[in-house]
Amino acid sequence: MKKKQMFISDLDGTLFRSDRTFSKKDLDTLERLGRLGVTRVLATGRSVFSLKRSVPGPLPFDYLIFSTGLGVTPYPDTLPRIMKAEGLDSGQTARIFDVFKDMSLDFMIHDPLPDNHGFAYHGPSNSNPDFMTRIDFYANHCRPMGNGSYQPGPSSQFIAMVPETSGHGVYLELKDRLPACTVIRTTSPFDGKTVWIEVFPKNVSKASAAFWLADHLGIDRQNIAAVGNDYNDESLLCAVDQAYVVENAPEDLKQRFTVVSSNDCHGVSQAAEKAFGP
Q1: Alpha-helical regions (H) of 58-152
Q2: Which candidate, 97, 17, 15, places its Cα nearest to that of 64?
């Protein structure tokens, strides 16, 4: 019997090129993997709502891991039918809220699934153009917290947006102060430099969602290959046997994982070819 295999690709900075288009070669490669019987998974930090706004039509994938592992759904799926969902209860939300306020961060608290494209926001306290870009992007789905009137309830995740120069320090402090949560840093898909620090329930990551899906489909974890470009892919890349990063990834990630060509030069195709053959 032919072994079941899985190929996982990140979106922003990996499959998405710098001009927000897709390489025909990469799309053709994904189509070929489908014909070979390889399960294709798109794993993104974007919500389902954000993905639909940014991608004009269905991509050649079978499943979607969205919001960095908060949920898993078949793809494409117009409903969508969420197969796996995670979230923060009111107590967890309140504790994270207090830490973010104490650190004077500009942040957003996202609503529970399936409506996690909606959020309440605090800030910006100073100049934070990337923060305002995201507010404009979600203009009909966000609301200010107001002056002391916000009461934390169930949520899905927190996002803080901090300058590149202070991002690492804020990330380390949040990891130290929120040990019962998953804290992930990534790079803004808007300006490509602002550091986004995302806080999720403890068991949320691209890796945990991918392994849950593999187990659900009866795919051996040793038969998973993945390609990414940023720190929110790190847990997944560390967990799979065949891990690749595109050339435009941060230097420290390139020192740890097999490097393929950049997102602008068919890096996804090169990763797939290394994993499954030309």
Answers
A1: 90-102, 129-137
A2: 15
pLDDT of amino acid 149: 74
Q: Are 119 and 156 in contact (CB under 8 A)?
A: no
Decide if 13 contacts 263 (C-beta within 8 A). yes
Kindly give the parts of the chain with pLDDT less than 50.
Answer: none
Q: Which residues 6+ apart lie within 8 Å of 98 measured at CB? A: none
CA dist 266 and 250 (Å) reads 18
63-66/39-43 β-pairing = parallel
Torsion of CA 268, 269, 275, 277, to 10 degrees: 180
Cα–Cα distance measured from residue 221 to residue 240, given in angstroms and rounded to the nearest whole number? 7
pLDDT at 1: 57
DSSP string, 242-253: EEEEETTS-HHH
What is the DSSP track for 168-179? HHHHHHHHHH-T
What is the arrangement of strands in the sheet containing 242-246, beginning at the earlier edge strand? Answer: 84-85, 71-74, 63-66, 39-43, 6-9, 224-228, 242-246, 258-260
Residue 86 is predicted with a pLDDT of 97
- Please report the pLDDT score of residue 146 as a whole number: 79
Q: Which residues lie across from 159 on neighbouring strands?
A: 108, 198
Give the 3-state secondary structure of residue 100: helix
pLDDT tens, position by position, 43-99: 999 999 999 988 978 999 999 999 999 999 999 976 778 999 999 999 999 999 999
Q: How many helices (H) does the chain have, and how many strands (E)?
A: 9, 14
